[in-house]
Amino acid sequence: MRFPTIPLAATLLALAMPAAAAPPSETGALLVRNGHVLTMDPEVGDLPRADVLVRDGRIVAVGPDLEPGDARVIDAEGAYVLPGFVDTHSHLYTTTMRGQFRNADGAYFDTAESLAPSMTPDDVRIAMHIGALELLDGGITTTGDFFDNVRSPAHGEAGLQALDAAGIRAVLYYGGPDKSTRYPIDVEHLSALAATRGEEARVRMGLAWRLPRDRDDATNWAMRMHERDTARALGLPVQVHVSVEPGPIFDALIARDLLAPDLSLVHATDATPAQLQALEAAGGALSLTPISEHRVGYGPTRIDHFAALRRQGLGIDGNALAGRGDMFATMRLAALTWSGEARDETAVDPRALLELATRRGADALGLGAITGTLVAGKRADLQVIAADSLQMAGFGGGDPAALLVYSASPSDVRTVIVDGVLLKTDGALRDVDLPRLREAAQQSARDLLQRASPR
Question: How many helices (H) and strands (E) does the chain have?
């Protein structure tokens, strides 16, 4: 009898992931003690020396000298305690394409579209799992993942399993089998997956939507609107790119009255004031991804250009395209572009960038009632950023926002908690077999290149 061959990368990942891809479990009560707490709540503000008490996955109290009771105490003396960062837009399935986007010798869109069709469900599971862990390692506790490579139900389930297993909070925007609009999204499978997600689910479903490339194609519009109507009937959020052709796509959304509070747009780098006004009037949201927008040549991402839009946040747009899943680098580039384009050092507001990376990003994903600030009642998604590295040394006091935006990096993130679960302590991810995960990723990447290469 012959048995089917199991790819080596899948075997390695199975050994490294939690049993049956189970999500991390509750670790009990936690008390983050004596940190400089940046609640990011406008009414509460900063608490220079305070505690955060967590029970049953929620923040139950924030303030000085809280009684720990039976809680595990995490010492944050001399460190900064913030809400976890919110990555409002990503493509985690491309994580194992890292290093293949070589500018003139491997442009992003051409390379990604040549590799994506050869991905198996196991390749997706590996890429999205390690991609999510990389985000967590850098203090990103929530991601909006635009999964536009759902080639089969098995691919879609693999992506969902990967995010569940990593422990990250997410909206998984379920898309079609490629970036074109030739094929419909499997809305029946999307509906089935959405039915498995309750109101308290850490990973929720959404629709990764695309407009017809031929805006006069009535048949394609009918297919796209069926997808949109299905998402609305299910109460799912929708994300759509307005990047390759900023004017026509944005204008098509306006002309057909498709802008709405449940819709977030991505990359509107060249949006006009009139277009942004229409989005604001509709209550829609925007995701800006400065690193990728610069890399693929969309033009400088001017944060001040979007000042009139209330619901907006920052995104990574895929760890491979951005180089790494690093919100600190994203904020820093946004700050430098802001001052450089304005030719005014004083134009930048570091606190505003922290807001985009936390509270406002959560609002943009429709998760503002759940995460994004450190106040009683929110789910416990937070990070502790140490100040004991050389790159953080020399700070004499005052508002730490500029220190965090310009000087901090993922290596300074010592503790990460998502939904009350301790995922990173003492600067290391917990219960993660990094050597096996790295080997699984390398093997999957090698196999993917081999399968995608012309015969």
Answer: 15, 17
CA atoms within 13 Å, Cβ hemisphere of 355:
14
Q: Rounded to whole angstroms, how far apart are CA atoms 334 and 128?
A: 26
The verdict on 53 and 186 lying in the same domain is no
Please indicate, yes or no, whether residues 128 and 194 belong to a single structural domain of this protein. yes
Based on the fold, state whether residues 273 and 400 are members of the same structural domain.
no
Please give the radius of gyration of the chain, using alpha carbons only, rounded to the nearest integer: 21
Q: CA-to-CA distance for 133 and 150, rounded, in angstroms? A: 21
Same domain, 236 and 294: yes
Cβ atoms of residues 389 and 340 within 8 Å: no
CATH at 155: 3.20.20.140
Q: Examine residue 202 and state whether it is found in any structural domain, yes or no.
A: yes
Q: Which of 334, 364, 394 is a domain's end point?
A: 364
- Does 62 share its domain with 158? no
Asked if 141 and 287 sit in the same domain, the reply is yes
Can you tell me whether residue 353 is helix, strand or coil? Answer: helix
What is the four-CA torsion angle of 233, 236, 237, 241, rounded to 10 degrees?
A: -80
CATH number for the domain spanning 36: value is 2.30.40.10
Task: State CA 425 to chain mean position distance.
Answer: 21
Instruction: Taking the CA atoms of 211, 216, 221 and 223 in sequence, report the sign of the dihedral they define.
Output: negative
Q: Are residues 280 and 409 in the same domain?
A: no
What type of residue sits at position 286? L
Q: How many domains does the chain have?
A: 2
CA distance 248 to 297: 18
* CB-count exposure of residue 104 (10 Å: 0-12, 13-18, 19+): exposed
Q: Please check whether residues 172 and 311 belong to one and the same domain.
A: yes
Residue 293 counted as domain residue = yes
The pTM of the full predicted model, rounded to 2 decimals, is: 0.95
**Residue 346: which domain range?**
85-364
Q: Which residues pair with 224 in a beta bridge?
A: none
In tens digits, the chain (455 residues) has pLDDT values of 333 455 777 776 765 665 444 556 555 899 999 999 999 999 999 999 999 999 999 999 999 999 999 999 999 999 999 999 999 999 999 999 999 999 999 999 999 999 999 999 999 999 999 999 999 999 999 999 999 999 999 999 999 999 999 999 999 999 999 888 889 999 999 999 999 998 889 999 999 999 998 888 999 999 999 999 999 999 999 999 997 554 688 999 999 999 999 999 999 998 999 999 999 999 999 999 999 999 999 999 999 999 999 999 999 999 999 999 999 999 999 999 999 999 999 999 999 999 999 999 999 999 999 999 999 999 999 999 999 999 999 999 999 999 999 999 999 999 999 999 999 999 999 999 999 999 999 999 999 999 998 75
